[in-house]
């Protein structure tokens, strides 16, 4: 006796369509969209039922190997939603949008960011990679343009010439990164999702997102590691 998944309404379909065309949607926008779709379609709307609304859509996306996933911005800790293709967790899903050489630059940039201490790679280091691509060498000017496109398409974020992975990229590539960089990729000790920009305990090596560090230590009288209880030596953001 199988439990039937709740019906997909036009409200669900409209919500999914907008999410797919956005690439990534910030939490407050998703909540507004949820309300708008329900009211337009004249179906029941409850402001605290966004997760249920999304899980109904996900139960219908399952046979298509797709899923709406929630992720947290490493910058400010805000929730974001993105539609993830589970059949192609690898960088292959980007292959339809970019050339082979652009993808190689992206992979190498992603690797620089993952292997870095602070979750950032400088434009200088990335542009130096452009000379060493296997597919073919890329001129610095060309590489700068490609990086700009990756930022526009929300795969990378850029701040003062430093690049990191955009929230969209982290949501979509989490499994790929965790399985391909097992030795270095770490999950946040607090929220258990992949942490690229993080603080790391000097004693036991666990990592925490900066927003999670802020939240966690707000409630503590003195900053001690949640795992080994040693004094937390990083500056609390």
UniProtKB/TrEMBL annotation:
GO MF, one annotated term: zinc ion binding
Main location: nucleus
Single biological process term from Gene Ontology: double-strand break repair via homologous recombination
Signal peptide as annotated in the record: none
Keyword DNA damage: yes
Catalytic class of the enzyme: transferase
Keywords, comma-separated and alphabetical: Chromosome, DNA damage, DNA recombination, DNA repair, Metal-binding, Nucleus, Telomere, Transferase, Ubl conjugation pathway, Zinc, Zinc-finger
Keyword Transmembrane helix attached: no
Pfam families linked to this entry: SMC_Nse1, zf-RING-like
EC assignment: 2.3.2.27
Catalytic activity: S-ubiquitinyl-[E2 ubiquitin-conjugating enzyme]-L-cysteine + [acceptor protein]-L-lysine = [E2 ubiquitin-conjugating enzyme]-L-cysteine + N(6)-ubiquitinyl-[acceptor protein]-L-lysine
InterPro entries, per the entry: Nse1, Nse1_RING_C4HC3-type, WH-like_DNA-bd_sf, Znf_RING, Znf_RING/FYVE/PHD
Task of the protein: RING-type zinc finger-containing E3 ubiquitin ligase that assembles with melanoma antigen protein (MAGE) to catalyze the direct transfer of ubiquitin from E2 ubiquitin-conjugating enzyme to a specific substrate. Involved in maintenance of genome integrity, DNA damage response and DNA repair.
Family: Belongs to the NSE1 family.
Quaternary structure and partners: Component of the Smc5-Smc6 complex.
Name of this chain's protein: Non-structural maintenance of chromosomes element 1 homolog
Source organism: Mystacornis crossleyi
Phylogenetic classification of the source organism: Eukaryota, Metazoa, Chordata, Craniata, Vertebrata
Gene name of the record: Nsmce1
């Amino acid at each position: 006796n199988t439990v039937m998944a709740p019906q997909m309404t036009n409200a669900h379909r409209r919500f999914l369509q907008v999410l797919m065309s956005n690439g990534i949607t910030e939490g407050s926008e998703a909540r507004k969209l949820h309300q708008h779709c329900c009211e337009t379609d004249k179906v029941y709307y409850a402001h605290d039922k966004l997760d249920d609304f999304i899980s109904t859509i996900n139960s219908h996306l399952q046979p298509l190997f797709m899923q709406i996933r929630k992720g947290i911005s490493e910058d400010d800790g805000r929730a974001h939603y993105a539609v993830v293709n589970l059949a192609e967790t690898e960088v292959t899903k980007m292959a339809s949008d970019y050339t082979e050489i652009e993808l190689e630059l992206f992979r190498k940039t992603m690797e620089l960011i993952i292997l870095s201490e602070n979750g950032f790679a400088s434009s200088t280091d990335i542009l130096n990679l452009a000379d060493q691509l296997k597919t073919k060498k890329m001129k610095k000017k060309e590489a700068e343009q490609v990086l700009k496109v990756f930022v526009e398409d929300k795969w990378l974020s850029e701040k003062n010439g430093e690049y990191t992975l955009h929230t969209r990229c982290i949501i979509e590539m989490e499994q790929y990164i965790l399985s391909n960089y097992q030795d270095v990729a770490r999950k946040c000790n607090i929220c258990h999702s992949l942490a690229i920009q993080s603080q790391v305990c000097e004693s036991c090596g666990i990592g925490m997102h900066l927003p999670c560090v802020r939240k966690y230590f707000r409630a503590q009288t003195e900053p001690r590691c949640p795992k080994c209880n040693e004094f937390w030596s990083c500056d609390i953001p």
